[in-house]
Amino acid sequence: MHELALVDSIFQIINIKIKELKLEKISQVKLVIGEMKAVEEMTLSACFEVFAKDTIAEGAQLIFERVPLRGKCRQCGHTFKVKNYRFICPECSDNAVEVISGKEFYIDSLLAE
Ligand SMILES: [Zn+2]
């Protein structure tokens, strides 16, 4: 499962932070997820709970911030929101479109007690 691997990578980072900052309890984890990352928030939350069980992150609230998919035309420089994965510039109809946001997946913040 895709979400399981993502949660695994989240916990690798959390564990580093726990050691680094000597945290004792994590109450909230905020994740930034790009639109292109096909992530089911419900599944991700369920996986998170499994991983968090018996750790200091048990019961932590998971917050999602979704980042829309945006592209930039290499031809005219126009930036726009990509709809339905149509990578075509609405200004000049060129299809040389660079993805400038929407691929994100990272921990934005950890709230510790
Ligand atoms: Zn263009």
TrEMBL record:
Name the InterPro entries on file. Answer: Hydgase_Ni_incorp_HypA/HybF_CS, HypA/HybF
- The keyword Disulfide bond belongs to this UniProt entry's keyword annotation: no
> What Pfam family is a match, any one?
HypA
Instruction: Look up keyword Lipid biosynthesis and say if it applies.
Output: no
Residue positions binding Ni(2+): 2
Domain of life where this protein originates: Bacteria
Q: Which molecular function terms from Gene Ontology are attached?
A: nickel cation binding; zinc ion binding
Functionally, this protein is described as follows: Involved in the maturation of [NiFe] hydrogenases. Required for nickel insertion into the metal center of the hydrogenase.
Would you identify the family this protein belongs to, as annotated?
A: Belongs to the HypA/HybF family.
User: What's this protein's name?
Assistant: Hydrogenase maturation factor HypA
Q: Which species does this protein come from?
A: Desulfosporosinus metallidurans
Origin organism lineage: Bacteria, Bacillati, Bacillota, Clostridia, Eubacteriales
